Every structure is written in structure tokens, then in C-alpha cells.
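dumping this here so i dont lose it again. seq + smiles for NAP
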Amino acid sequence: MASSSPNSLTTVLAAFGALIATSYAYNIFSFLYLFLFHRSTISRYLQPASSSATSSTSELRSWALITGASDGIGVGFAHELASEGFNIILHGRSPTKLATVEAALKAQYPHISTRLFVLDAYPCSVPAIDDYVRGLAKDGLCIRVLVNNIGGGALVSPTFQPLARRTAEEVQKLFDLNVGFPTLLTRALLPVMQEPSLVLNLGSFVSHIPGPWMTVYAGSKAFNMSWSRSLGVELRAEGKDVEVMGLVVGEVQSGGHPGPVGLVMCSSRTLARSALDKVGCGRHTVAPWWRHAAILAAVLCLPEALLNWSMVRTTRGMVEEEKRLLEVDKRNL
Ligand SMILES: NC(=O)c1ccc[n+]([C@@H]2O[C@H](COP(=O)([O-])OP(=O)(O)OC[C@H]3O[C@@H](n4cnc5c(N)ncnc54)[C@H](OP(=O)(O)O)[C@@H]3O)[C@@H](O)[C@H]2O)c1
């Protein structure tokens, strides 16, 4: 067998290099295009209902249902979607907190209608979800947008814990809130939503990078993103006009994640606005805020061992800080 000459080796290496350079150039170009030139198509989901049993004109407008809308990013989405002209269904478990958000929406956007959907998502009840959706269908609401926002790692305490020390109840709660509730609600709601329709699912950086001491949360968020991609592709293949977008989110100031807005942390409204700005971009997963997207792209260039090491180091610091704060709380009781 003839051995390869230095010339053919050079050609193979050059072709390989060109391929890598093209892939980098494409990624840079699509990043710039998405954040500088893409124009949102959110307005296509504002089409009035084709038929409806509701009487009021304002109720004929498109509705957006936002889960976990009594705090944080959910409130951000409620305001941004209301500012676009959507009627809003606010979901949460606390009627008092939801009423406060509703009052703020009504004061700022008097032309929209609002409804409350009060349901504790843990334990996740299929009959309760199905009953509620049946009620919406009976009322003939034109629901075009669903934001599966409910979730988080801080919904159990402590947030950081080795898997073997988590109680079975904590694991179940993380599954129910991050995976079970959004999946079951979407399953029930899709047949009721009017096309064209939009489903936004909240993910996290830990969908893409390791999340030691928060493995169940990280795994759930990876589910959210993989599920968004598969569902988006499935619906398109079935001929449905439903856009599904998984949102890869870094640090955002919220009730569950307080902290100052800064270089790497944006406000809940900025996150929601950035997400709505990406509607129609054709991707099934996207990091909506440009700084998060840039950070994630840079982090994913790191060698795996270095990324794992730095996540262990960073998260260990957070584990220690949380332990200290929980001790202070215990002493103050
Ligand atoms: N903030 C971040 O830095 C960040 C980063 C990455 C991803 N995310 C993702 O973004 C989403 C929102 O996060 P967030 O920080 O805005 O959360 P948050 O401030 O903690 O708000 C969570 C919302 O979910 C509701 N909720 C919690 N448990 C519930 C239950 N059992 N039944 C019904 N509602 C319940 C809360 O209601 P109450 O007001 O009654 O508690 C609140 O409205 C999550 O999916 C999270 O994973 C956030």
C-alpha cells in the first residue's frame, strides 16, 4: 500500500483548517446577525381570534399564559408581553402576590385584559392542569403564547447539595417544578392554542455546562432545552405553525436570585425583552441576552477539564456561602 505523501497530508490539514475557520466565521456571523440585525416577529402572534365565544372586544385579543408569574423573570415577561398588547394570564401559587402583579399591569396597560391561574405546581396535579385548560377552551380564549417560566434550583433549600444527601422529596419537587409541570401544561394546552402560536421554555447555562451540587436542577434544565428542540422539530414536521424556543439564561436579577444588575447579570425585564426580540430567529434554543450569549460561547471554548475544574471551584464557593447564610438564619430563629 502506498504511504501518503507530505503533499497530500498538507492538503488534508489545509482542508481541515478551512473547515474549522468556516465554522468559526459562520458562528461569528450568525451571532452578529442575531443580535444586530434580526427583527422580531412577535407581532404575528397578536392576530385577533378567528372565532371566539368571549364577548368583550379586548378579550378577543391574543392571550399569553406565563407560569411562575408572581415574581422575577415571569413578571418581566408579563410586562413585556403586555406592552406588546397581549392579554395576560398570570400563573402562580400565591393569590396575593399575583393580585399585586395584576394591579401593576392594569395600571400600566389599561387596554389589556388579565386573568389569574392559581395552582401550586407541587405536587404536580394532572387533573388540575387539565381542568383549568378545559375551562380556557370553554371560554374560547385565543391563547397564542405560552411562557414555561416556572422553575429554578432555589425552590428547594439548600440549593446546593450532593445528590446522595438530597431527600427523595426534594428531588421530586425539582422534577415537578422544572420538568413535570411545564411538560404536562404544554401537552394539555397545545391543542387549545390557536395557530400561529409560540412556546418559550426557560433554560439555564447549566443546561450546557456542569452544575455540581445542583445536578437535578442542571439535568432538568438540559431536559427543557432538548425538549424544546425536539418539540419544535416535531410540530414543524406535523405541519403546525407553532414556534418553540428554549431560552438559555445566565444570571438574572429575580426574587429567587437577588443581586445587583451588572456586567453579567441583567434585570428580569431585560431578559424578557431580549427573548421577545429573538422571536422568529429560526432557532430552537437561544441565549437571548447578548452578554449571556457571549459568555456562554467563550466558556464552551474551554477544554472540558478546565471547565469542570472552574465550575467545581466556583460552585464550591457558593456552597460555602449558602451554608454560612443558613447557619445565620438558624441562629436568628
Ligand atoms: N434568575 C436567574 O438567574 C436564572 C438563571 C437561569 C435560569 N433561570 C430560570 O428562569 C426561570 C425563572 O426564574 P426566576 O429566578 O425568575 O425565579 P423566581 O424569582 O424564584 O420566581 C419563581 C416563580 O415561580 C413561582 N413558583 C415557585 N414555586 C411554585 C409552586 N410550587 N407553584 C406555583 N408557582 C411556584 C414563584 O411563586 P412565588 O412568588 O409564590 O414563590 C415565582 O412566581 C426558572 O425556570 C429558572 O430556572 C433563572
